[in-house]
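Input record (Table S2, row 523):
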Amino acid sequence: MGASGDSARELSAYNPEKYSSLGVLMSSPRTLGELRRSHFSEERLRNRRVKDELRDNLIARLRQRDDGGIFPGIVGYDDTVVPQIVNAVLSRHNFILLGLRGQAKSRILRALTTLLDEQMPYIEGCEIRDNPYSPICRRCREEVARLGDATPIAYLTPGDRYVEKLATPDVTIADLIGDIDPIKAARGGHELSSEMTVHYGLLPRANRGIFAINELPDLAGKIQVGLFNIMQEGDVQIKGYPIRLPLDVAIVFSANPEDYTARGKIITPLKDRIGSEIRTHYPATVDEGVAITAQEAWTRRNGHAMHLPTYIQQVIERIAFAAREDKKIDKRSGVSQRLPISAMENVISNAERRALRNDEKLVVPRVSDVYAALPAITGKLELEYEGEMKGADFVGRELIRAAIAKTYDEYFTGANVQQIVQWFDLGGEIQLSDSVPASEALENLKEIQGLTDKLGPLGVSPKESPEQQVSAAEFILEGLHAHKRIGRNEERVFKAGEKKPEPQREKAFDADERPYRQRRQFN
Ligand SMILES: [Zn+2]
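Output record (zinc ion complex):
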């Protein structure tokens, strides 16, 4: 999940000059001379580092206090993570986000681009986007000396200024910082250690921007040393040659907290240079999780009208909540927010498939669609030994069932559902496959006395569409099943429970004493 370049531009920084971005483009200075006379003056830009720019634009945003929040689209971090990031940016720190997978770390880092100027001038053609007033590469210094005020100027958008790298053990100094290119050296007749012979890596190419390194502890020690040298001194050695690269980059990192704190994973001097450590977390409440999933999942689709019941959203969210607490699932890697997001997309697709097959106009997801979304769930679970033994499918089903039970309790604690349970105990059976049309399913469900009268807490009245009534009624049956008050087999036939919980209430209908079993067949 995360903001694309486009949305980064959409949310682009507060522009103190209040030029429309098109206006800026049309009238932007094209030479160094024009630039000097514009609002991109030498006085303003020469010593303005990226971290100053982030800070200035953040201050402007804090003063504005717009309703979109500091980082639009970041949900559930307003009182925890966001204030710490604000402090880090105000402090001009390099910082690291420590958190488990799927805690929107990359998204937050990308959101920093919304604090960059809409346009940033640089010397046209420069590989490392040199500041027109203080170029660091020899090519640009020579060009400015030769062309003076006629030196051509180009511009970068915030999206152009964000570079991201997933650290892996095989990342080299050449990838990250650069390499000496002997062919380039020979052609140009340069000394081998001259900057003209350097083939720049990712970090110099992020010059005057934000460089994000994800999973920092996976970076080899000597690469961390190179990174530290660049951050500290602006010097680095490539193949033994000292290269001076006083880059202007805001470097931000992310890591799994256990990896980061493990001894020896991060070299101490680098750790010392990381100004703030900020812990991320999973959504604290089901409602926040629902909001994040609603924002991230692809739910608004062409073709069909859809009604997505709140209880289905809550069930999907609680699968992740249950998984995060489950001993069968690895705590160290966590359970990503991508689990409910992918599950939601699959749930809606299964409901869509049913609507298409049965020529229904309204798509209304059901609990059975959640079970059908197992393929979007199991791959997101890192199982411990016990979980491996039971299998991902089994663990996934257990989680769904736990999520249903909790969600059912939210709506029906204290509700009298005895009549419904009795209907099954007296031998009633009903099959509710995830493909059966709503009109047909509703006819069958109406046979269960008391069931369709109980849909009120879910906000569903008998006036609602069959699709909505079926989804709500099935939720009640699934809730009773999750609490083991009624049974259900693999063919999705609901029937009397095998065990007899709450004996004080159901004594009269104990299986052994039952005179006969009333059987009904449904297709
Ligand atoms: Zn340059």
